């Protein structure tokens, strides 16, 4: 029998996608965002509840019968992007997660947030976490900053993780990839181009976002991403104004809005991630959605599509996002990369069940097909609602 899990602050289902790749059993997912819950329900399980976790009575679920509880409470109050407020009410949802842990008493819990959780506001929230966990002596715990590119994700994405376990001292998952590859005894980190080069070219203002594959997969990562899918969805693009296109065209690979700041009245300062054109031959910048934009495509004069962002996040093509274009960007970029989640699942299966699954899923096609079967579904169905609404455009 495999391990069971519950996913709080689940969003579109990054944790659940990765756990199901590893064969774990989904008990439930809970989030406040209706669009994200539609996506999770479509791809993961019907057992997805759209609820306000600030007032949710977790005792209505079950008590003591789940192996793993994971959660990614809102990170905006700790992020380097945008305005931070120590009194942001969303920050207190961190403690709601640990309230749930104390009631459900799982064998293992995992908490995820941005690296700023440890340092923001002079580290007060991290100190409070340490104090809270001192009051939970049943759990041995550990914390670390992980870079997603070390786990086969084609993206430089650092995140804070804390993990607690009842019967063992938890450790960071074993890295499978690195910048130096074989020199460090790993595979070489997956580049942006290795993740998206097989996707069709699209124009500006592509609203439908549904395509057939028009070329073969060009590497093992792409073959893996296509498993269970014979069509591409969510490959939409914004209808950029000529002014925005002019800015995009002026940015060379590896640069950002610093090349044109002060040339436009509306762009007087450089902000994090603004008009940043991705580099092809290394892992992508962190997948993000802010101020109406994400990274610029390395070759085309447009921002990356939601499907390209999903590839960068390690969502398979069979995982179909159920929101508008803007909602899909947010769902994808806020998610825990599924391959990072899978690495945690692999580690826990080994410790708790003595089961060893392949470290890298595409190294064993047969295993991938078996373990990923239940998330590589519905790829031939047409979305009831096309992903085309444009709610906010960059300036």
From TrEMBL:
Active site: 75
Keyword Methyltransferase assigned: yes
Catalytic activity annotation: a 2'-deoxycytidine in DNA + S-adenosyl-L-methionine = a 5-methyl-2'-deoxycytidine in DNA + S-adenosyl-L-homocysteine + H(+)
Keyword Glycosyltransferase: no
Gene Ontology molecular functions: DNA (cytosine-5-)-methyltransferase activity; DNA binding
Enzyme Commission number: 2.1.1.37
Pfam family, one: DNA_methylase
Domain of life assignment: Bacteria
GO terms (BP aspect): DNA restriction-modification system; methylation; negative regulation of gene expression via chromosomal CpG island methylation
Keywords: Methyltransferase, Restriction system, S-adenosyl-L-methionine, Transferase
Family as reported in the entry's similarity comment: Belongs to the class I-like SAM-binding methyltransferase superfamily. C5-methyltransferase family.
PANTHER family assigned to the protein according to its UniProt record, in alphabetical order: CYTOSINE-SPECIFIC METHYLTRANSFERASE, DNA (CYTOSINE-5)-METHYLTRANSFERASE 1
Entry protein name: Cytosine-specific methyltransferase
Organism whose genome encodes this protein: Crinalium epipsammum PCC 9333
């Amino acid at each position: 029998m495999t391990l069971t899990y519950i996913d709080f602050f689940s969003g579109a289902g990054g944790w659940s996608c990765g756990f199901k790749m590893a064969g774990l059993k989904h008990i439930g997912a809970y989030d406040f965002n209706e669009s994200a819950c539609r996506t999770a329900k479509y791809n993961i399980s019907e057992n997805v509840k759209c609820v306000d976790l600030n007032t949710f009575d977790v005792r209505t679920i079950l008590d003591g019968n789940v192996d793993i509880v994971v959660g990614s409470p809102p990170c905006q109050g700790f992020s380097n992007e945008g305005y931070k407020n120590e009194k942001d009410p969303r920050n207190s949802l961190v403690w709601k997660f640990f309230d749930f842990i104390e009631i459900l008493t799982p064998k293992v819990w995992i908490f995820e947030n941005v690296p700023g959780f440890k340092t923001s506001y002079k580290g007060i929230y991290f100190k409070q976490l340490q104090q809270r966990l001192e009051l939970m002596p049943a759990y041995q715990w550990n914390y670390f900053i992980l870079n997603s590119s070390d786990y086969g994700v084609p993206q430089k994405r650092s995140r804070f993780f804390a993990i607690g376990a009842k019967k063992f001292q938890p450790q960071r998952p074993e890295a499978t990839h690195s910048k130096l590859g074989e020199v460090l005894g790993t595979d070489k980190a997956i580049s942006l181009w290795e993740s998206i080069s097989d996707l069709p070219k699209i124009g500006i203002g592509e609203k439908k976002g549904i395509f057939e594959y028009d070329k073969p997969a060009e590497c093992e990562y792409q073959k893996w991403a296509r498993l269970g899918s014979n069509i591409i969805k969510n490959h939409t693009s914004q209808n950029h104004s000529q002014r925005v296109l002019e800015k995009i065209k002026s940015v060379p690979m590896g640069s950002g809005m610093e090349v044109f700041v002060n040339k436009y009245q509306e762009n007087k300062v450089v902000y994090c991630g603004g008009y940043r054109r991705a580099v092809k031959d290394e892992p992508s910048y962190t997948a993000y959605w802010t101020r109406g934009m994400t990274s610029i495509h390395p070759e085309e004069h447009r921002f990356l599509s939601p499907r390209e962002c999903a590839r960068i996040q390690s969502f398979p093509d069979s995982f179909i996002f159920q929101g508008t274009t803007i909602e899909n960007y947010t769902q994808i970029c806020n998610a825990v990369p599924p391959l990072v989640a899978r690495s945690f699942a692999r580690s826990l299966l080994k410790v708790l069940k003595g089961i060893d699954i392949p470290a890298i899923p595409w190294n064993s096609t047969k295993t991938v097909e078996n373990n990923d079967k239940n998330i590589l579904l519905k790829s031939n169905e047409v979305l009831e609602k096309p992903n085309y609404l444009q709610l906010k455009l960059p300036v």
